[in-house]
Design goal:
Length: 203
């Protein structure tokens, strides 16, 4: 990941919190000598060392999983356009964003391990539902049929990189102007970026 030193975030706890909050990620590996991406939800384990998820068995990506080659998962958060008209000097526009990249080794999981992974994922995302569904409430024959149509996997995390590009290189006046202008927008991304900038204000 390219990120100047003032945009890098090496705080492991913040990286993991970000992944948990923005857990719909992009799984990337190589298929037939080309990059292949699948957009899927992930589950990060309690100590932040492993990610689990699953894809459709019809997705050829899994046939190219290798325990010898790393895969990459990209998690993205709020992002927004920043107009250079908000600066007190001539400059070019830019884009502010937060993103986390995870690199690790992948392995396919089956049997009870697969079912445990699915249960954890479902229970996690159903937690706020008024009438949550669960694997225990599903007809066993139906559940087994659905399970046969997926490939579950676990990624052991080797490295995490994070870029928090939030105008840290701008002077105080410009920094505050950006926050003010973003808060004027009827856009949740812009407002979230403004909140992050306020929280991380270097001045």
């Amino acid at each position: 990941m390219y990120a100047p030193k003032y945009h890098k975030n090496n705080d492991r706890n913040e990286q993991l919190q970000f992944i948990r909050k923005n857990s719909f990620g992009m799984l990337i590996n190589e298929v037939n000598n080309r990059p292949w991406v699948t957009h899927i939800p992930f589950m990060l384990n309690n100590d932040g060392t492993k990610l689990t998820s699953h894809i459709s068995k019809g997705n050829v990506q899994w046939k190219n999983f290798s325990t010898e080659k790393e895969v990459m998962v990209v998690f993205t958060g709020p992002h927004t356009y920043v107009s250079s008209s908000w600066y007190n000097h001539e400059n070019v526009p830019t884009w502010n964003y937060i993103a986390v990249h995870v690199y690790g080794n992948i392995r396919i999981i089956e049997g009870d391990e697969l079912k445990t992974s699915l249960k954890q994922l479902m229970d996690h995302y159903e937690a706020d539902s008024e009438h949550p569904v669960s694997m225990e409430k599903m007809t066993p024959s139906y559940l087994e049929k659905e399970i046969r149509g997926i490939v579950a996997f676990e990624i052991t995390i080797n490295q995490v990189e994070a870029a928090y590009k939030l105008s840290q290189n701008r002077e105080k006046e410009d920094y505050q102007n950006i926050i003010t202008e973003l808060n004027k927008k009827a856009d949740s991304n812009a407002i979230e970026v403004a909140k992050e900038m306020e929280k991380r204000c270097p001045y």
